[in-house]
Amino acid sequence: MLNGFMKKFSGKKSSKETAKKRLQFALVYDKLEINEMTLENLQKDIVEVISKYFEIDTKSLQLEVQREHELSALVFNTPILCVKKNKGYNSKT
Amino acid sequence: MEGKIIVVTSGKGGVGKTTATASIGAALALEGNRVAVIDMDIGLRNLDVVLGLENRIVFNIVDVVNKRCNLAQALIRDRRIDNLFLVPASQSDNKDVLTPLGVQRVAKQLKNEFNYVIMDSPAGIEKGFENSVVAADEAIVICTPDVSSIRDADRVIGLLYARSITPRLVVNRIVPEMVARGDMLSHEDVMDVLSIDLLGLVPMDDQVVVSTNTGMPLVMHNQSLAGQAFRRIAKRINGEVDLPIIVPSVKTGVWNRITQKLGLNK
């Protein structure tokens, strides 16, 4: 309990949080047989495309794989700050 | 009689499959059912010692499947618990001596004579696993709250779904103090990671080792917390579906309860 107190205020992550994160990633990779690199590259590409049309908050975006039974879904979450006025045409001009 | 065949499996070894099989089987018999527990771990049998029936083995499951004896000859009746029977594994063969077809034939026979048939699957996902699940109507997946066991459970769950069996999960060896400290995955964490329904939560309990030492079924010890958890699991299997799942908890004093409320123990 004193431990909990210390952890809460030292901002240190508990070992179970680490375990859960690692597990979630491991299970996704096991199933899709992709690695972290691929996901990172995918995220970069998605951000690039979306940024053509929207101003997005690149700091708080999330790419995760959600699983239900035998199905996996890629979920990309990003706060949109505003729509770019020149809707994607800037690449042509 | 048209009984149910339930396979107990885990992928990873050493998470408590055999203890769970023995305990759930014994508890179902205590509930008044006719129960057979089958050791499918050919070559590495252990269900017999856990149940304290190792001195009474004459025939085994391989003999039955390969028609060297009939089913009745291989069934060992437990003298402490009415209506509990064991079919032991063979210790000398390897896992290839059984065929899914042969197992299915014997399973059909077992279903006619028992309310519940509990199959103790070997670790792994190879032939021994195949033979254990081939006749199963239901499946119980056992895991402990650690990364390797959960990862293997996920694999097994996938294999069961592929066979149209919807498994239920038992999280074994929960240490409430460690969960409270944030050093062990809670059952909620486990459920977040695995897509499966929960059947029960079993706390870590020294009595498991003691009862294995003596060959006395765990569920016969009234004081054993793990034994109580398995009895509740058996009741849930036996139709009391709404029996609440008790989360193993630290014996709480006032101070613990206050800090828990404040979220300091998470």
Can you tell me the CATH topology of chain B?
Rossmann fold
Q: Tell me the number of structural domains of chain B.
A: 1
Strand count, sense and closure of the main sheet of chain B?
A: 8 strands, mixed
Question: Mind telling me the CATH class of chain B?
Answer: Alpha Beta
Q: What do the pLDDT scores of chain A average to?
A: 76
Query: Strand order, biggest sheet of chain B?
Result: 3-4-2-5-1-6-7-8
Radius of gyration of chain A: 18 Å
Total helical elements of chain A: 3
Assembly type of the shown chains?
Answer: heterodimer
Main beta sheet strand tally, sense and closure of chain A: 2 strands, antiparallel
CATH architecture of chain B: 3-Layer(aba) Sandwich
Which pair of chains has the greatest number of interface residues, and how are they split between the two chains? A-B, 23 and 28 residues
Structure description:
The complex is a heterodimer of chains A (93) and B (266). With 93 residues, chain A is α+β, with helices and mostly antiparallel strands. Chain A has a domain at 34-93. Helices cover 48% and strands 23% of the residues of chain A. In chain A, a hairpin with a 2-residue loop joins strand 2 (62-68) and strand 3 (71-77). Chain B has 266 residues and is of the alpha/beta class. Helices cover 40% and strands 16% of the residues of chain B. Chain B has an 8-stranded mixed β-sheet, with helices on both faces. In chain B, helix 1 (17-30) crosses helix 11 (225-237). The relative contact order of chain B is 0.18. Chain A binds chain B through residues 1, 3-5, 7-8, 14-17, 19-20, 22-24, 26-27, 30-31, 67-70, and chain B through 146-147, 150-151, 154-155, 158, 161-162, 179-186, 189, 192-193, 195, 255-256, 259, 263-266.
